[in-house]
Every structure is written in structure tokens, then in C-alpha cells.
Design goal:
42% of the residues lie in helices and 14% in strands. The longest helix has 16 residues. With 369 residues, it is of the alpha+beta class. Bound molecules: iron/sulfur cluster. The site of iron/sulfur cluster (SF4) has 15 residues, from α9 and α12.
Length: 369
């Protein structure tokens, strides 16, 4: 049924664009598990997981997470290992730590009920402008726009914005435009309609304008400028970091250390090691890092492999070595914990991409004898 026909026409906004968009959404909304609930906790979990991550990737994590931690209480009571295991592979691990802290706060300060007040929402650890707006609009029906990457792109094209939408002025222009389109009381459908349009039709490299329900309103399309919108700010190439990793074996076990909470990959387990200095010899760097982190001297180092991974802001090349050391007992100088893990059981320890690959190689070597 048309929204005009349903009487939801509002003369405050350009009605036909909004109505056309909402009609399309009414018929084409993606069927996603977090859309079948009004539970703000479940909506928050989905919104956090979806940051920087595709829906298809999030779906199995979301189902597993909601089965294991169905409410703030279950999440607050989870151990760090449980949490990291449920999150492993999603990346940006700080999100999981912040959710844990937020759940504890909800239990402590809101009697386990997810807060509705915008100020309380923003005061939850890890809840920034976008998440507060998304949860506010989708779970509580607040009349706000949640500007994520999809919305920025679609709106920048619709209004043919000639500014970087991430600049202060660009964002203000986008928000002003989106707010002028926002139908009162229907922010949940409006935001999700734009999210879906951005994820399925108004794609970054290949916008399917022929299939777009609001193509007739799109100023970038009219100007033939879809591919020039959004305008991108200057981006430098990714800096690269060179690392060394030491595998210290003892019978069938190897030593792993837990990274401190808060930093990159915080709370995950890793093989000891660290960055090399500029032009530093790899084995010299390995001895220096292992001595500094564990207080033991590497006496011999056998190359295991070279591993590469790109994060958002830099790329890492890690050189792993199997080490013979002076036999003294390692001490955790930089890790929060050390553990001797059986090579077959390494998979049970939450790890980042590179360490997970090293662990897999070690297991394959052990199986090959
Ligand atoms: S017409 Fe093309 S560029 Fe404009 S909103 Fe639709 S898909 Fe995006």
C-alpha cells in the first residue's frame, strides 16, 4: 500500500522520494534476524557487529552470540575467553570488549534493562554517535538519522554532494538533507531502507541505477556523476609494519601470551614477538623482542614462514621462527598471561589472523611428523 494512500503524507518533506523509498522497502526489505525483534539489546548487538563488516559475515556470528549471550546479564557474566571465542574472526576486537563493559554497566546502573534515554545510550562504552542513532531509531523509534557508510554514499549521490561526506561541512549537509526527508515516527524504516538500498542497489563501484526505485530523484544520476559521488578525501597508502614472532616449543606444547586489553587485538592470544626497528636484522629483532617480553634468551632460530595481513590503517608482514632458548622459565613482562598450549589445541585459544595461521601451520607440521 502506498504511504500516500495510507495517509502518511507529510507536507514538510519532499514526499514522493520518501514515500517511494518506503514503499520499496515495504516490499523488498531484507529478512534479517535482528529485524524480527524489537529487543534493543539484540538490535545493538547487530549494529555493533555490522560496523565495518558485511551482513553475510555477521549472520552466523550474530546467531551464535544471541544463543550464548541472549541478554545483557549473560554477556556481563561471560568470561573473556568465551567472549573472544564468540568474536574471533570478526575483527576490531575492541568492539567486543566495549560490549562486555557496556553490559556490565547496564546491569549495574540500569537494572539489566537496555537504556532508552539518548544520553544514557551514549554513555555506554563503545556507543558512539552512529550506534546511538541506529539503536535510537530502530529500537525506540527516535526521529534521528544514523549515518553509516551506506547512508553517506546514497545520500551523497541523491543530493549530488560535491564535498567529502566525512568532512565537517559535508556531514552537516548530508544530515540536513536526510533530516528534511525523514518521515516523523518512521525513522526505523527510513534508515533501514537507505541501508538496504546502499547494500543492494546503490553499490560503491557499480550502482544499479536501472533497478533503483528512487532513480528519478537522484541528482548525481541526472548529472551522470554517480561514480564521482561520494567525493573522497585524500587517502595515503597503507603504512607497513615488519614484525617477528617466536614459537617456543616444549614437548608438544608451544608458548602463547595474552595481549593486554584495550590495544589492537586486545585480549587475544599470540606468539611472543613484536615490531622490528628500521632495517634491523630479523634474528636480532627476534632476540630483542623475546628477551624483553619473556626474559629468556633465544639461542637458535629456524624460519617457519612469512605471514601478511592488512588492517584498516596499516599492513603487517610477520616473520615467524621456531626458537631454541636458554631453558629458563618465561615471565610475562608485557602479556597479561602466558600459557603452554598443546599444538593440537591451539585452535581453542582466541587469536588474530596471523597467529591463527601460524598455529595452523604448526599443527600441520606436527601431523606431518
Ligand atoms: S540512481 Fe543510482 S546513484 Fe542514484 S541513488 Fe539510485 S542507485 Fe544510487
Amino acid at each position: 500500500m502506498s504511504h500516500l494512500a495510507s495517509g502518511r503524507y507529510n507536507p514538510r518533506m519532499p514526499p514522493s522520494l520518501t514515500d517511494t523509498l518506503l514503499d520499496w522497502y515495504g516490499n523488498h526489505a531484507r529478512d534479517l534476524p535482528w529485524r524480527r525483534t524489537g529487543d534493543p539489546y539484540a538490535i545493538w548487538v547487530a549494529e555493533v557487529m555490522l560496523q565495518q563488516t558485511r551482513v553475510e559475515t555477521v549472520l552466523p556470528y550474530y546467531r551464535k552470540w544471541m544463543a550464548r549471550f541472549p541478554d545483557p546479564k549473560a554477556l556481563a557474566e561471560a568470561s573473556s575467553d568465551e567472549l573472544m571465542s564468540a568474536w574471533e574472526g570478526l575483527g576490531y576486537y575492541r568492539r567486543a570488549h566495549n560490549m562486555h563493559l557496556a553490559a556490565e554497566k547496564i546491569l549495574r546502573e540500569h537494572a539489566g534493562q537496555f537504556p532508552q534515554n539518548p544520553e544514557d545510550l551514549r554513555n555506554l562504552p563503545g556507543v558512539g554517535k552512529y550506534t546511538a542513532a541506529a539503536v535510537g531509531a530502530i529500537a525506540f523509534g527516535a526521529d534521528v538519522v544514523a549515518l553509516d557508510g551506506n547512508l553517506r554514499r546514497v545520500l551523497a549521490r541523491l543530493m549530488d554532494l560535491d564535498l567529502d561526506p566525512r568532512s565537517v561541512e559535508g556531514e552537516a549537509r548530508l544530515l540536513g538533507y536526510a533530516t528534511s526527508l525523514l518521515p516523523e515516527g518512521r525513522a526505523s524504516a527510513f534508515n533501514q531502507a537507505l541501508m538496504d538500498l546502499g547494500a543492494t542497489i546503490c553499490l560503491p563501484r557499480r550502482p544499479a541505477c536501472d533497478a533503483c526505485p528512487i532513480a528519478g530523484f537522484c541528482r548525481a544520476k541526472a548529472a551522470g556523476a554517480q561514480m564521482d559521488r561520494p567525493v573522497r578525501g585524500a587517502r595515503a597508502g597503507l603504512p607497513s609494519v615488519r614484525r617477528v614472532c617466536g614459537v617456543l616449543p616444549r614437548q608438544r606444547s608451544v608458548l602463547i601470551g595474552r595481549r593486554p586489553l584495550g590495544g589492537l587485538l586486545g585480549g587475544l592470544w599470540e606468539f611472543p614477538g613484536g615490531d622490528t626497528a628500521d632495517n634491523e636484522d630479523l634474528e636480532v629483532a627476534l632476540r630483542r623482542q623475546v628477551l624483553g617480553q619473556l626474559g629468556v634468551r633465544v639461542e637458535d632460530a629456524l624460519p617457519l614462514g612469512v605471514y601478511r595481513h592488512s588492517y584498516t590503517h596499516f599492513q603487517v608482514t610477520a616473520h615467524a621462527f621456531i626458537c631454541a632458548w636458554d631453558g629458563s622459565e618465561p615471565t610475562a613482562f608485557e602479556h597479561t598471561d602466558l600459557r603452554w598450549a598443546d599444538v593440537d589445541q591451539l585452535a581453542a585459544n582466541p587469536m588474530g589472523k596471523i597467529d591463527r595461521t601460524i598455529a595452523r601451520d604448526l599443527k600441520e607440521r606436527a601431523e606431518a611428523g
